[in-house]
Write a structure and sequence with these properties.
Distance between the termini: 23 Å
Largest sheet: 4 strands, antiparallel
Oligomer: single chain
CATH class: Alpha Beta
Low-confidence stretches: none
Shape: globular
Order of helices and strands: EHEEHE
Number of helices: 2
Bound molecules: copper (II) ion
Radius of gyration: 11 Å
Number of strands: 4
Structural class: alpha+beta
Strand content: 25-35%
Length: 80
């Protein structure tokens, strides 16, 4: 699940965040689902082992929106 990027949609922004608290594929699915609900988010890629979440979007997405979505899913964004 690491490192593949096959975005066909127009991606203008790609940012990697670190999410803490994910322990299994269910957590990954929850976070992915919440992040996809943000306007403009085209692709979400999660590396469970490191907590790295890469968000590709067709428009810039505010960090606070990402933080809120991650919290809605029940996890936290690591301070970076
Ligand atoms: Cu889980």
């Amino acid at each position: 699940m690491t490192g593949t990027q096959e975005g066909e949609e127009t991606a203008v922004a790609q940012t990697t965040y670190t999410v803490t608290g994910m322990t299994c594929e269910h957590c990954v699915a929850s976070v992915t689902e919440e992040l996809h609900e943000i306007d403009g988010v085209a692709q979400v890629s999660v590396d469970l082992a490191t907590g790295a979440v890469t968000v590709t979007s067709s428009q810039p997405v505010d960090d606070e929106q990402i933080r809120a979505a991650v919290q809605d899913a029940g996890y936290a964004l690591a301070a970076s």
